[in-house]
Design brief:
Layout: H1 8-30, H2 34-37, H3 41-44, E1 47-53, E2 60-70, E3 73-78, H4 85-92, E4 95-100, E5 103-111, H5 115-127, H6 131-135, H7 145-151, E6 156-166, H8 174-198
Antiparallel strand pairs: 1-2, 1-4, 2-3, 3-6, 4-5, 5-6
């Protein structure tokens, strides 16, 4: 599969679309539904939340991102590169918290710049992203190293060093859980139908 070349207007629309989706994801995590968000990683991806501080306001911000754990270490990707809001925030304030399906952690963010180490880890994060990578035309399971490196040149790979356990949002009451799961199921169904309609034979 070839990559999709986006102009600035298309990229901005895609960013705004992901922002809307991310707000929905954060709401589910805050209701204690993080493990359920990850119930179908092949489609929805492996998702965690980075809790960080705004670089200008100092206010708490939340960024749902796809991730991979390699040799016990935690990694994620800023897919829009240097313009990614949360990436710009953690470059200024690298102390974060992360919400993972199996628990929360305090951590320190550091960018991976070693080219040899970067590509295989970045590939795994993209594989773990489910539909997100395919949205921009990436096929991380099958692309050659050269093609993947060229297509993700502006991506930023981040290593989060986990330092101490942190509490997670508690599970919401039954009716709220049912609502959250219903919304998640509907969203997955709509995306699945759209994908098969727009990309026959994928």
């Amino acid at each position: 599969m070839s990559t999709i070349t986006l102009n600035s207007q298309q990229e901005e629309k895609l960013r705004q679309g992901f922002k809307q989706f991310n707000r929905f994801m954060v709401s589910l995590w805050k209701m204690g539904l993080g493990p359920w968000v990850n119930f179908w990683p092949q489609v929805g991806g492996r998702i965690m939340v980075i809790v960080h501080k705004g670089r200008k306001t100092g206010q708490t911000r939340y960024a749902p991102v796809n991730y991979a754990v390699e040799n016990g270490e935690l990694y994620c990707v800023a897919g829009f590169g240097q313009v990614t809001d949360w990436y710009r925030n953690v470059k200024v304030n690298p102390e974060v918290e992360v919400w993972l399906p199996d628990g929360g952690w305090a951590g320190i963010v550091e960018e991976v710049t070693d080219k040899t180490a970067r590509l295989p880890i970045l590939r795994q994060v993209l594989i773990n992203s489910g539909f997100a990578a395919r949205t921009v035309g990436l096929s991380p399971k099958t692309m050659s190293d050269a093609d993947l490196a060229a297509a993700t040149l502006h991506y930023r790979l981040l290593h989060i060093y986990r330092t101490a356990p942190r509490p997670m949002p508690k599970m919401a009451p039954g009716p709220v859980i049912a609502f959250g799961l219903g919304c998640l199921s509907l969203l997955t169904l709509l995306w699945w139908k759209k994908r098969h309609k727009e990309t026959p034979g994928y």
